[in-house]
Amino acid sequence: MTENKLNTQSGADAIVVHLIQSQLPMMTAGKITLRNIVDFQTRCTRYFQMVKEKIAEDQKVMHILGSFEDHRITDWTNTQSTTLTIMKFPDFMEVF
Fold this sequence. Notes:
The protein has six helices and two strands, in the order αββααααα. By secondary structure, it is mainly α.
């Protein structure tokens, strides 16, 4: 995706890519803003509604942890995975 490569430039805002509603949305590397956090949450909620095999509430965070391309977020999710994976999705979005 050329869009992602362009977005990794210093200072560029992260964007949420969600082309197919039954597949996970992705957040590109870049500056995290309230707008892209709300967009990510909305698209994840839509994904949870559209996916063929329903995802249990206690598994939703586990499903979305791989949705981030920014190394700062992946470092955080990797180091905090034990705590994050037991959270409900709304609680995760509060700490995100």
